[in-house]
Amino acid sequence: MKDKSLVERLIYLDAEFISRVYEAERNISPTTRITRTQSMQAAASLALFSGGGSSSESRAFEISTLQMLDELMGHLGKYPKFENFSLGDASGHFWVEGTLTASKVKLTRSTGVVTVVGAHEHKPADPTRELIGEEAFFTIKANNGKFALAPTDQYFVSGVATFKGLTHLVVDQMSLPCRSLLRVFSARTAFKQWVATPLVILDREGG
After folding, report:
1. Does residue 150 sit within a domain?
2. Which of 94-108, 125-139, 144-158 has the lowest mean pLDDT?
3. Of 68, 148, 176, 196, whose CB count within 10 A is highest?
């Protein structure tokens, strides 16, 4: 590997994304197998209206995704920094420097009104409110924006995905300085965060 520090700095790597880019940039066709499965519900219905089937694709390369990342860092570095993005724009790939943290939202109901309460809002307890549900999620906070992440947990390095569930229970504070490649979509949360899928998350060099 050219950059051995990637082993220690890696937080998240989307294996599907990096293998697709590697295939395109290196013009290497992997061994591919597509498997089709069909549920019993779908088999008992008209095929025209059936949505019960699913397909999965497995692809085999001769190198690891970490090695792919190492070889493609120069190419990935050509993606721009996040700026000048607006609702209605097509999704884009952007580099963001900020801090990775976890937030939690609660959905409560009181006298027939549903209210979303942000994780960092401190309001006095209301005994008449009924907790409907709560959800923890990863976020990245940067100077040029805030991002609510929709990751695939298995792409985090070992243990990191569990931080989300421990936030506000065991983990009181979480603020990991990082440099991230995100695919940002034209969608925002109620808390003005851009919705994004992480592709690469690295510890920021120098902290």
Report:
1. yes
2. 125-139
3. 196
